[in-house]
Amino acid sequence: MKELQFSLTEHDHRNFTYILLSRYQKGGTVQLIASTGIGIALSTVLINLLKTSEYYTVNTHIQTALTLVIFWIIYFLAQYFFKTFGKKPQLDPQGVLLAQHKLKIDTRGIAFETNYNKSFTRWQGILDIQETDDYVLFYTDRTIAHQLPKTVFEKPEHTREFLEKVRHYWKNPNSNKKGSFELVYSLSEHDFDSLCHIIGKQYKKRNIIQIIIVALVGAALSVWFIEGLRAEGNLPTRDFLQTGLAVVIYYTIYFFTRGLYQSLAEYDLLDPQGSFLAPQTLTIDAKGVVEKSTHDQYFTDWRGIIDIQETIDYLLLYNGQITAYLVPKTAFETPEDAAAFLEQARDYRQKSGRGAKNEKGKSDDTAEKS
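The chain above was modelled as a monomer; its predicted structure follows.
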């Protein structure tokens, strides 16, 4: 048995989110390139049509800015089309999100169980309970929540009764009032997308302000660069190349400015009392992975660990395509300790049957997907 104790930071959360989303949004790069190409082509066509109009400005600075505005309108429309009608990435059917869930609630707290995963959170660890049109959400942090679909209830009255009992338990933890109940349900990829949208709305205002600031800085510097090239006679003569160059310069400045803005901005996405920033104790043994914090406990059988990965700064034990146990390498005294932990985890997983080889030489994960 190996036990680790560590704490995570807002910076770890940001990196963790990026790693998880990069697995889920594998088609994002292709969509970005396609949307950019469509934006350059159509904005060039529209600009050429506008040039024949008597209302087209003769000011070259405004021309460049107008080109970027038209490009971005077309770009976002193309992105919306891809996200709405394109083939969406699929969550792992063996992962924790799409498995059948069993919810148990009593005076102590709230427990979730799937085929290979178990979690328990004391009521003191629930920061908020929210109701939307389709879900009941139990927040363990500002960006982390357990999701219960209302379809599990036969009537709206049952939902209200459920919320009344749950909020009583939450406001009066370990009260003398007895009672417990259990619900069984399943979630879909649509439910996951909805949860991401609900949580993302909390930070929409700040994100919009950031986007506007970065976009204005990028546009201003792009116009300045383009006009400098025009004055020196180094600007391409073809409209398509001019538009493409303006977009490339804008992209470069935009991403640099956004990175600088985010690096200087204070991190405040998480609650200091939430589950992510709380001190963690992670243990692995032959049965599985156990992670404990102040008010939470999570367990995953090795058969539920679908992947184990290593990055420069972290070890990740995935119990879903977009859910994982995060272990910072700073939790180990030496790189050799991290390597030994990783080897032990993979050995446990292989012995459970998850990482074993079949007769054709493929791993179980590969065989399941093929």
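Residues 2-22+274-352 form a domain with the PH-domain like fold (CATH 2.30.29.30).
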